[in-house]
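Why run this: before we spend reagent on co-expression, it is cheaper to look at a predicted model of the complex and decide which construct boundaries make sense. The entries below are exactly what would go into the expression plan.
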Amino acid sequence: MNTPLGITQLEQFDAQDSLVAKRDAFVLPPNTIYLDGNSLGAMPKVAATRAQDVLATQWSQDLIKSWNSHSWIDLPGTVGEKIARLIGAAPGQVISCDSTSVNLFKVLSSAMLLQQGRKIVVSQAGNFPTDLYMVEGLSSLLGQQNCQLQLVDNNELESALTEHVAVLMLTQVDFRSGRLLDMQRLTQLAHEKGILVIWDLAHSAGALPIELDACNVDFAVGCGYKYLNGGPGAPAFLYVAKRHQADVVQPLSGWMGHKTPFSFDNKYDKAPGIEQYLTGTPAILSMSVLDAALDVFSDVDMSTLRQKSLALSDSFHKLVKQHDALAELTLLTPLSAAERGSQLAYQHPKAYALCQALIKRGVIADFRAPDILRLGFTPLYLRFRDIWHAVEILADIVQSGEYLKAEYAVKHKVT
Amino acid sequence: MNTPLGITQLEQFDAQDSLVAKRDAFVLPPNTIYLDGNSLGAMPKVAATRAQDVLATQWSQDLIKSWNSHSWIDLPGTVGEKIARLIGAAPGQVISCDSTSVNLFKVLSSAMLLQQGRKIVVSQAGNFPTDLYMVEGLSSLLGQQNCQLQLVDNNELESALTEHVAVLMLTQVDFRSGRLLDMQRLTQLAHEKGILVIWDLAHSAGALPIELDACNVDFAVGCGYKYLNGGPGAPAFLYVAKRHQADVVQPLSGWMGHKTPFSFDNKYDKAPGIEQYLTGTPAILSMSVLDAALDVFSDVDMSTLRQKSLALSDSFHKLVKQHDALAELTLLTPLSAAERGSQLAYQHPKAYALCQALIKRGVIADFRAPDILRLGFTPLYLRFRDIWHAVEILADIVQSGEYLKAEYAVKHKVT
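The model came back. Tokens follow.
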């Protein structure tokens, strides 16, 4: 399509958008275009209602009885099954607990213990740091002779998959570039060499259709507070394929993962199913909010969501290309839909200042060191007209030189 | 004192109680005597107010900016320092994160890695199961030849401390019996044999004065949702003595424990201080509530709290002894103040049914398998007159045979 994109057309997209009403399910700040749902999802109204109920009734009034009467004890499984539906997992394979990092340690340990005799963990250079650090952490216990990280570039991924490799650990959508990997193909290639595969779904769960079972994935972990809108630092989740559940060992064997937690045995006897991956007592307030937030997805078709996500980022990029002032923005994200997540990443020498100036104008983007402006597109609460205004503001900031002001030059603590 | 204890005297105790006003800081259910604060602390009013602020302002309105503007990024340290004051730790040694179980895995790993060449972890038989299971979990990675659990009875503890032992891992107050161990003496005896010591403070932090620094403790972990009133499944905490912080390695090396988390380096470079024990993103909502809840302690003198705690449990037991109907209750908790935590545990052949009948009458106690009735005394919100009524109800239940009703015979899921 060579005709320039205009506001009228974007308003038309909104009029045709079957997800448009979902925006009402969220509390959003006024005069803000929020392009950072890939870092912290916006607050669903039901989440606030649930939190209120946990405080006013469950904790304060029913106190300890709530473990039964409000099913706190079942929450990790309840939340897990709601997420399972979004990531193509049949029941009994997903559970919510701990942080993504801690969960990664659990499944990584399980995978390495299954792969005795192989020591290499292959991952992408530039993968989210915690994923790589967890391999280092596991090495400190297993020894470098039993657990060793090998980092490769994306174009070397397939050739790195040899019989020496124990585990392939990948993030489906790269946190920086937004590149989407081919889960089906990479999992299959790894399996052909006897390699177990762990997928980190932090930037894909809730953003696009995922088919863990169909792709024959071994293990996965993911985040509750990005596209799943579970609130800041919401509990994470993990997936372990049914076929592995009898054989795996996971070292964070806490009392909640015991077959009969309330028998208080001295000896650990793991639960037979996915519950064996529970460790300590879950943060009930945060997990309840995540549980409620997931209900926003209950009537959402993930293909429809994906179509809107791609259309939002397509529109954004087309609008960027229409502004000469934005020529200095270099797109890092692949434009092909098969290789693109739900975000766009642009390199720009003054990306940090640009990001700060945008935030000042109510367009919440984020910055990733050293020079990346990152924009997340969350189809549940973003409108096409928001995209138009965001790019208009961006162009204005660049054209006017506003972003060159001294106040935007200093790095803040958290980006 | 041989004169029987009466309600008048208990009301007098209330009149003289300098902590009596603290009860107003909590939301408590009507017609309830809550003797289970050692399982789940009651809700402080400030906790609910803070949760509301996190939802209505921080998350929903300020969104990602809250990491700086509402100091989310500092929360683990802020909370840690508030707890430090309660457990006798100078600044820079306590941090809040994850669950007690996960934190135990971190410090246990650190201790074992420091103690290369020694493989034995000594603990109490009957210690809280998660503590023991975590040693098993670590063994699955280090191998039985490098990490092995040795369980001893309380009276064998001291003789078990030999040069072959790597780590002594104890819970200061036993979750079942309520027995309080001598932290100073056991830590010193262990150190004399080159053993590192880990204390689990789950049933002591917030319940009695603790002096980690003065006792020269190496590592400690503890729970946020019992006597600290942080809400169900609130984040836990850990302590690592300053003298170990440069040398330790902890395997759950997530991005939050990195020296510069936002540089997103491929290589893990641990933070120099206690922050190295952070792993993933903290559950901000749950941790904020804990942060607010700790403010209830800001003007509390821990010796005063301890005196009231002992007086509450003394009164309870005296009243029990005054009732012939309660002769079948056998006290498991040592009566000596030096050996008693903030709870009483009674053995009774029908302890489960007794507990259920009590709950039905508004006295919330709890049951621990196979035959223990457990009563927790939280000086911040319990009155002496509550103790009187609780024992009256208990005696009435036994005398009337009410607890023998069929409805109390079936075990519920969570106790």
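The first helix of chain A runs from residue 7 to 16. Chain A touches chain B through 99 residues (CB under 8 Å). Bring this page to Monday's planning discussion.
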